[in-house]
Amino acid sequence: LSRASAVPRVRALPSRPNHVRIRVLPLSVLYRSTVSHQTLVLARVLGFESRDIAANRAGQLSEQQRGDVARFGRHARFVGAAVLAINAIVVAIAVFTMPTNARASLAQYLPQILVGALLLTMLVVWLSARARPSAGRGARSVQGPIRLEHRTIDGMDVHEMHVGTQCFSIGAAQYRELVESGLSGAACTAHYLAASPVPYLLSAEIT
């Protein structure tokens, strides 16, 4: 054998450029990495997401929240119309079931009755409008420690979450979870829509 054939041959590998892999994290993962565990508890209990609180910080509402507010408004209008209908039915039954002579004497008070009915209608419409949050007003914010309160009014349980000067109505299950999570007294920023008698809570975060 020749000397050249005895030397092992080495094949040079083709050079490859260095590849850098960039992993794009979902927005939910990025959100979880930038907020505290207590804020995540609030998000789970109160039912809002990262896109909601991001919009609320800018004084706006997310698309999901706009839909929720619109449904709440339709419910408030339905309740107002139902109250007016029930009042009209009760008055009609009372008039038609009274004796004929009493009905004739009542006719002289017809103008006062019509004025009273008109004022009642205006009152119900006004209360319905005040109770209906408007997305066009924009989100407001209030800061302060969380204070959880459970009261009984006329045999009905009322659960509330106070933040600063605002009081928000919450459900019994939400109240229990917030108490068990130890969030009472934690510094909080709550985002809400103005409504009467209770503001409409949008989202909240521990600060």
Question: Quick recap of the structure?
Answer:
With 207 residues, the protein is an alpha+beta fold.
Structure description:
It is a single chain. The model is unreliable at 18-33 (pLDDT under 50). The chain has helices at residues 3-6, 27-34, 37-46, 50-57, 63-97, 100-106, 110-131, 172-180, and strands at residues 140-153, 156-163, 166-170, 187-193, 200-206. The chain has 207 residues and is α+β, with helices and mostly antiparallel strands. β4 and β5 form a beta hairpin. The protein is built from eight helices and five strands. The chain has a five-stranded antiparallel sheet with strand order 3-2-1-4-5, with helices on both faces. 50% of the residues lie in helices and 20% in strands. The longest helix has 35 residues, at 63-97. The radius of gyration is 32 Å and the shape is elongated.
